[in-house]
Amino acid sequence: MPNSSDIDLLILQKTHSEANRKWRFLTETDSTNAEISRCLPDHPSEEGLVVIADSQTGGKGRQGRVWHSEPGTGIYISTLIRPNLPPEQLPILTLMAGLATAMAVNDFIPQPAQLKWPNDLLLNGKKVAGVLCEYHSLEIPAVIIGIGINVNQNQFPKDIKNIATSLKLESGTEINRTELIKNLITQLDHQYSELVENKIQALIENWTRHTDLFGKTITLNKSNQSITGKATRLDEQGRLVLINASGEEQAYDSGEVRIVTPTSE
Fold first, then answer.
1. In the chain, fewer beta carbons within 10 Å around the N or the C end?
2. Is the pTM of this model over 0.70?
3. Exposure of 33 by Cβ count < 10 A (0-12 exposed, 13-18 middle, 19+ buried)?
4. Which domains can be identified in the chain, with CATH numbers?
5. At 127, is the secondary structure helix, strand, or coil?
């Protein structure tokens, strides 16, 4: 089994970055997002901080879920940014981080992974990566971007083995985590700089090129509601646009997407 020795902090510290990166590597933590949030009161302006853990005991997913984070296999990473964006535009940051993750991952595998709105990356229909952005309303507002990637896992616990996979399981190749982290941070830097320059439409168009969601019938679970319709596009704010049975369009800024198949209708 690979171990933390394939995460080389010295190599990562030499990675070219427009941001003033500060790298921290932990053998274990509860959550890399939580690790950064604990730093905020003492280091309120530390944009560019990156925390990597070899394992997490309480890795975070959306809606309170736990991200399976065994040692020596995955990438569990968080970084801090301070974008000049209001909280209602936070979904754009999730799309930005998801796009960066997809582009980084796809450089290492023969078959491209596909983005699933708003924050998942799927490979052969199973989750291989996820993004969690957390907004902190401080004197200088901060956003923590957390990314989990299943890299070299050979198996998963029974409760998620049918919905989760790893790059190794799907490609048959073990991947060096340091090289993937380098690529991920490079992509994050690029996509974030595009966002800062207000190239939101370009980001949305690029995100659209990395998904196979559109044209499919989906069910969106949101605030105890279940909405079924055909996913058509993202609007200019990154919201998911559905067409319902009456032919009406409606845009949604959050929710859990499930693709409707003949066996699940």
1. C
2. yes
3. buried
4. 4-209 (3.30.930.10), 217-259 (2.30.30.100)
5. strand
